[in-house]
Amino acid sequence: MSLESAALARVKPSATLAADAKARELKAQGKDVIGLAAGEPDFDTPDNIKDAAIKAIRDGKTKYTNVDGIPELKEAVCAKFSRENGLSYKPSQVNVSPGGKPVIWNALLATLNPGDEVIVPTPYWVSYWDIVLLAGGAPVALATSAETNFKVRPADLERAITPKTRWIILNSPSNPSGAAYTRAELKALADVLLKHPQVWILTDDMYEHLVFGDFEFSTIAQVEPGLYDRTLTMNGVSKAYAMTGWRIGYAAGPEPLINAMRKVMSQTTSNPASISQYAAVEALNGTQAFIKPNARLFEQRRDLVVAMLNQARGIRCPTPEGAFYVYPSCQELIGRTAPSGKVIASDADFAAELLETEGVAVVHGAAFGLSPHFRISYATANSVLEDACQRIQRFCANVK
Ligand code: PLP
Asked: How far is the CA of 396 from the centre of ligand 1 (A)?
């Protein structure tokens, strides 16, 4: 008999965490490996946020809190949505969870019945698909392509919706493609969703602050107020404030949904770490001065990586609007022979051979539901990125 439950047996472990772990393991063995698999900023949590956490410890804020967030943090979340997104929420409409990932889990576990469909545009962040499965729902892939810049076309969305559709998950800017929807593009999707009142929208805005050039970030409940009553607007401090280890994510939406999510938490995790919550209050209410310069830095890295990858033989890399990922195609290398002599039959082979031959760790596209591609996280120093891209160029040049 298998140890794993039937629900868990349907789920894959996170491919991005696995690729990162493999790179760390090889490095620990003394191999010269560049890890471009992990999805976290390379800068440290700002000092004002650390100081707020230290103060919270000294002030004895070390006990259980309200299950879904302290009032101060819910107020800070409401202020953030009002200030940055023009969205008005009351604290009773806010959920704070131990990370963005648990926000999604809490929302889906709270609402899905067996067979309920959740539309997940591809390429998707690895966890959406498996969280839906674990929560007993049925994920439905909605394919995009490089031709539409990895964005969903309204007609394709219309076709994907059925009477069983319960949710659609939007993610802009996207992990893994970096694609971000303009206001007009979101409005076009909203017009489709307005016709289907059974469909709720979970919008994952984790990378809101990482948009480039003159791109302006928008979120769907702001663009179409008619969807406000069935949208969960999700965000977190992990990426914008370099707080991946602190574990705070948050969301706002209709009160009945927020109450149901609290019920899940009350019997599972209880509250997110009290100290992290006080740190997140400072992140949201304190200085935001580093956010724009930080986005400029990521933009320069994007330009460097896109340019160098497009010089690699057989790689095509679109220019994304945001986040810190690129999602190039390795289509032209499929069926050809790697320097090791092995045939590259899939993007998984491409990633494995690249790691083996040149010591560059990337994540293969199949993990994100759209092949043949691979994801590079460019949240690392320019010199490292240059070295990695040169190795990729050399690898591709040696493919026969
Ligand atoms: N959503 C997206 C699109 C992400 O890329 C990530 C992290 O990689 C998360 C959510 C999860 O964030 P957290 O670390 O706060 O759980």
From this structure: 31
